Amino acid sequence: MRRGAxxxxxxxxxxxxxxxxxxxxxxxxAAYRLDDYRSPTPDTLAGASVVDTPSARxxxxxxxxxFVDTLPRAPKPQGLPEGTVWRPKPRSDIPGSIWLVDxxxxxxxxxxxxxxxxxxxxATKGDKSRALVFYCLRDCWMSWNAAKRAIGExxxxxxxxxxxxxxxxxxxxxxxxxxxxxxxxx
Length: 186
Description:
It is a single chain. By secondary structure, this protein is an alpha/beta fold. The protein has a domain at 51-74 and 88-186: Oxidized Rhodanese, domain 1 (3-Layer(aba) Sandwich), CATH 3.40.250.10. It has helices spanning 2-24, 53-61, 110-124, 141-152, 164-170, and strands at residues 49-50, 66-69, 91-93, 98-99, 132-135, 158-160, 176-178. It has a five-stranded parallel sheet, with helices on one face. Strands 3-7 form a two-stranded antiparallel sheet. The protein starts with a helix and ends in an 8-residue tail after the last strand.
């Protein structure tokens, strides 16, 4: 009986060690993440600086960056019967942010690539050196993909805030209701 308990303890310890290692060492992929978007993210993003909550707060308070939310939201269903009430899920965001909804998927339709590109041009007034902070939620690849996409578009001051509104709220920082920039398909 003692031997069985020892083997069980070793097996449980090994499983927990492997889980901790997997969560701590997510490798940065060479390309965009294409699935399992709500899962642990890497600690790095080549070409961007990764910011924690105090750093994001400093950028916010100094008005040194434009904050860009990339959280997805289901569009209004097409062909709803007249009089049907449709209420999208509300979003609370970092004050003053822009919400470029659905731009963090690994693959985007051409119309959504243009929506992303045009949204950044409007926000930065065409200045690709303007600092941008991309975020969504903790353990969400959407902001990682969008920040990587901005780097590919030639933006040179890209910051990725992996804790997003989860980290912001946990720090007691303000959030405000937000609607996304109008989608091209709505």
